[in-house]
Amino acid sequence: MNAKLSLQHVQKTFTDGDRTLTVLKDVSFDIFPGEFVAIVGPSGSGKSTMLSIAGALLSPSSGKLLLDGKNIADASEKERQLIRLHQIGFIFQSSHLLPYLTVKDQLMLMTRLSKESKKDAEQRAERLLTELGLRHRLHQYPERLSGGERQRVAIARAWMNEPDLILADEPTASLDTERGQHVIEQLAQQVKQQKRAAIMVTHDERMLAYCDRVITLEDGAVS
Amino acid sequence: MFLALKELRYEKTRYALVAGIMFLISFLVLFVSGLAQGLAFNNASSLETMNVDHFVLDEEAEHQLTRSLVSDEDQQVIEDGEVDATPFGLHMTMLIREEASNVDVAMMSVDFNSPIAPTIIEGQTPSEGQTLIHESIQEEGIEIGDVVTDNASDMEFEVSGFTEDQTFSHAPIMHVHEEDWREMRDGEFIVSTIAIHGGEEEAAQVGEQLTDSEVITLDEALAGIPGYSAEQGSLTMMIVFLYIIAAFVLAAFFYVITIQKLNQFGIMKAIGSPVSVLAKSLLVQVMILSAVSLTLAIVVTLGASQIMPEGLPFQLTGTMVAISAGLFLLTAIVGSLLSLYKVAKVDALEAIGGAK
Are residues B195 and B239 in the same domain? Predict the structure, then answer.
């Protein structure tokens, strides 16, 4: 089976004044379809940078980044934008929903950006939201939702364009344990059902139970 | 459109405030423009309604019609030439009235059969000893059949009718018969100015033949009227400043709103939105707000012009409204450039608080 995402000897350095900071030294790993992988590690270990590179938000300084077998390490800004739109779904620490869109419109926005036909999209949006138990919230604005509900909308949004890869950056940070577990349970379920791949950066060890594999980063390298 | 409209709807109060300010500024722009145009017309409506683009004036008159005397030589040259032209006499004077205040008027004499003869709205063409006066003189209580006395010549005239759009230097024009004009100057017909019928070509043709006179354009003739430039200049300055203020106010408002939303723009970029969508959304919002407030301002200005008192010189032509609207939209776009720049520069990583 081919890896969905493959990082090969990825290195990332930042220049800070006249100092050069190596955040990722040499990171290699593969993620396969249907796999839900957790990334753990102390603060400053490079987790977020790694996730940003995997999510085509940052380019690696060196090394290869294969998405579906294609190297996107040197992709242009425009190419990376299209990859983010079509192939990657992001879930952030806080839901980061747009305050002026209703729950359903948050999802419809994604299909508008990818210029997809509206009719299929509406059905999919409603199905996703129903699966995540948000059927009754379709036409409400984020301000009326609870934290858990907002995060579930963010998950639905990440799924909306049917990405190959879901990237979650501490998705439970703003939720209490019970809600957090519920959200992750649903995320894991979706990954399995649809044979997608997902990476979750987390500090919360209780969430690791839902993951197939745990990768530990320490000082910019897989340990 | 999707994002722009949804956001305008959600943030009604915020955007209504912006639109409110834009409405007030554009209303003021339109109002002052109308006033400037009205004053310009009111100042020298006689020249503007003549439909003449060029005038022959004495070289030494410094573009002032009332100061000009075209030499006999030049008059003869033009008369003998092939270009159609109408000479006329013009000077400022005052009407003396018993038991009432005196009235400033401009006295003009022109062939009543010429193309630049005044339009009579009441009464008839004057014969010797009679005069036609601009309708505004009625506000002074002067009626057809009344006899008025010219201060300069001490001659008496019977009012034979009223004209429209015949003012010069904000004073009503009294048209007198050519014979009376002659009598005032010991039998000689003094020609202040000659209006040239035709375009640039004719004007140039006439210009070449003149010795003591020059050909000036309508705009130069208007600018030569004492006070005209100062009046228009200060109003123009107000209008220019209003546009600048509009640009700054818009820029400030949208900049603050954009800064507040940087996080949202960053998220949008992170989830794969192209910058063009974000920029378009911002521009659509600016355009919608401008269009709405501008439409409202035009309606209110036109409404206000209906209920304005007669005497207030206010004139707003369709062209003027179109130009103002275009300029205002342009101002709005210029005002949003700073925000557009900011949107284009948003870093998706910073917005989601990741990396580094």
Answer: no
Q: Do A23 and B356 make contact, defined as CB atoms within 8 angstroms?
A: yes
Which residues from chain B sit within 8 angstroms of residue A169, using beta carbons? 352, 354
Ramachandran assignment for B353, one of left (phi > 0), alpha (psi -120 to 50 degrees), beta (any other): left
Q: Flag if B272 and A85 touch (Cβ within 8 Å).
A: yes
Q: Indicate whether B249 and B335 sit together in one domain.
A: yes
Residues of A with CB under 8 A from a CB of B: 14, 23, 48-49, 51-52, 55, 57-58, 78, 81-86, 88, 90, 92-93, 96, 98-101, 105, 108-110, 112-114, 141, 157-158, 161, 169
Domain total of chain B:
2
Pick among A58, A98, A200 to test the B interface (most B CBs inside 10 A): A98
Strand partners, A214: A38
Domain check: are B21 and B94 in the same one? no
* B135 and B246, same domain (yes or no): no
Do A217 and A10 form a contact (C-beta atoms < 8 A)? no
Pair (B198, B298) in one structural domain: no
Same domain, yes or no, for B63 and B180? yes
Chain A residues near residue B267 by CB distance under 8 angstroms: 92, 96, 98
- Supply the pLDDT for residue B356: 34
Domain that includes residue B105, residue range: 47-224
What is the pLDDT, as a whole number, of residue B57?
A: 92
- The yes-or-no verdict on residue B187 having pLDDT over 50 is yes
Kindly state whether residues B215 and B248 are assigned to the same domain: no
- pLDDT at residue B353, as a whole number: 61
Q: Is B177 found in the same domain as B58?
A: yes
Cβ of B55: how many Cβ atoms within 10 Å? 28
CA dist A64 and A67 (Å) reads 10
- Min Cα distance B23 → chain A (Å) is 25
B264: nearest CA partner in chain A = A98
Taking CA atoms, A189 is separated from A131, A193, A211, B307, in Å, by: 10, 6, 11, 71
ipTM at complex level: 0.87
- Give the model's pLDDT for residue A147: 86
Nearest to B118 by CA among B24, B40, B51, B32: B51
Q: Which of B166, B195, B224 is the last residue before a domain boundary?
A: B224
- Chain A closest-CA separation from residue B264 CA (Å): 7
What's the burial of A34, exposed, middle or buried (CB within 10 Å: 0-12/13-18/19+)?
middle
Q: How confident is the model at residue A133 (pLDDT cuts 50, 70, 90)?
A: confident
Give the right CATH number for A31-60+76-222 from 3.40.50.80, 2.10.10.70, 3.90.226.10, 3.40.50.300.
3.40.50.300
Between the alpha carbon of residue A4 and those of residues A35, A70, A184, B323, the distances in Å are 9, 10, 21, 58
